[in-house]
Amino acid sequence: MNEKSLYKLSCGLYIISSSYEDKTSGCVANTLQQVTSSPVQLSITLNKENYTEQLIEKSGKFNAVVISQNIDMDVIRRFGFQSGKDIDKYEGIAHREDRQQIPYVSEHTCAYYTCKVVSHLDVGSHVIFVGEVVDMEVLSEEEVMTYAYYHQVKNGTTPKKASSYQEQTEKHGWRCSICGYLYEGEVLPQDYICPICGAPAAVFEKI
């Protein structure tokens, strides 16, 4: 069974954000989809250990933006491989606030959707949230970033907490224990920095 066939599923990449009291966070996900048209409802699936998921649980609201192909990989690194418990995800990032006072990335994004949670489903390691769209807008006409484009052109990796994460076992070299990036080679330079999450050589594991 070839799990890489899952990369062929047609889906985009999105930044999902939420806020509760004075706390705000966001994360990258590829699981956003429309589920109904009247009213318009979207679903999102997030890992229970994800800080953004915990804020959605408490606040009952979230927003989502569609990422464009032109987005800086540093933004994906910030939202995809660092925790909102440790850093302010939006510090130094161009952003606006939606009608629910949740920030969203405003540069190199194609559209945004503001949602109030109407139902959720526990599916083990993850939770599926269904949100009714209370506002949405086109932000740009840039080409959207698909999941396939992220892997094939941007050489992106997938966080371990993502629902689409796949354990890489067929290659040899060094693997970043934070984001899963693979460095192929017998010797990893001591001053090497992961190009995806910015982690130092010390966190790489020999595979």
3D structure, described in words:
Keywords: Oxidoreductase. Its cofactor is Fe(3+). This protein is mainly β and 207 residues long. The chain has two domains: 10-150, Roll (Pnp Oxidase, Chain A); 167-207, Rubrerythrin, domain 2, CATH 2.20.28. It has three helices and twelve strands, in the order E-E-E-E-H-E-H-E-E-E-E-H-E-E-E. The chain has helices at 51-59, 73-81, 147-152; strands at 14-20, 23-29, 33-37, 40-47, 61-67, 95-97, 103-105, 109-122, 126-138, 174-176, 182-183, 204-206. It has a seven-stranded antiparallel β-sheet. Strands 11-10-12 form a three-stranded antiparallel β-sheet, with no helix packed on it. It has a two-stranded antiparallel sheet with strand order 6-7.
List the helices and strands and how they pair.
Blueprint (H helix, E strand, L loop, with lengths): L13 E7 L2 E7 L3 E5 L2 E8 L3 H9 L1 E7 L5 H9 L13 E3 L5 E3 L3 E14 L3 E13 L8 H6 L21 E3 L5 E2 L20 E3 L1
Antiparallel strand pairs: 1-2, 1-5, 3-4, 4-9, 5-8, 6-7, 8-9, 10-11, 10-12
How much helical structure, as a percent, in the residues? 10-25%
Strand content: 35-45%
How many discrete domains?
A: 2
The N- to C-terminal Cα distance equals 22 Å
* DSSP summary, beta strand count: 12
Spans where pLDDT lies below 50 across 5 or more residues: 162-166
- The CATH architecture category of the largest domain equals Roll
CATH third-level topology of the largest domain: Pnp Oxidase, Chain A
In CATH, what is the homologous superfamily of the largest domain? Answer: Electron Transport, Fmn-binding Protein, Chain A
What is the count of helical runs? 3
Structural class label: mainly beta
- Give, in order, the helices and strands: EEEEHEHEEEEHEEE
Cross-sheet strand order for the largest sheet: 2-1-5-8-9-4-3
CATH class of the largest domain: Mainly Beta
Mean pLDDT: 87
Radius of gyration: 17 Å
